[in-house]
Amino acid sequence: MKALIKDKPTRGANFTDLPVPKVEENDLLIRVQAAAICGTDIHIYQWNEYAASRIKLPLLFCHEYAAEVVDVGKTFLQP
What we know:
This protein has 79 residues and is an alpha+beta fold. It is built from two helices and five strands, in the order βββααββ.
C-alpha cells in the first residue's frame, strides 16, 4: 500500500510502499479512495514547535479520508 510517513524529526515526509496490514480481531481494513490535508498535517510536515511538542514518531498521515471497508476483524461480526 502507498503511505505518507513522517519518521524523522525534520521538515518533510516520505511517500513509500508498506505491506498491507493483517486484520486482527479488533481491526477494520479500509481502502482509501480520497484523502485531504489538514492544518495539523502541515505542522507535522514542517516539524515546527507545535508538532514537535505533540506528535510521537513514526506517524502515518491521513486521518481525513473517504474509504471503503474491505475486511473486518471478528469483534465487528458479533451482534
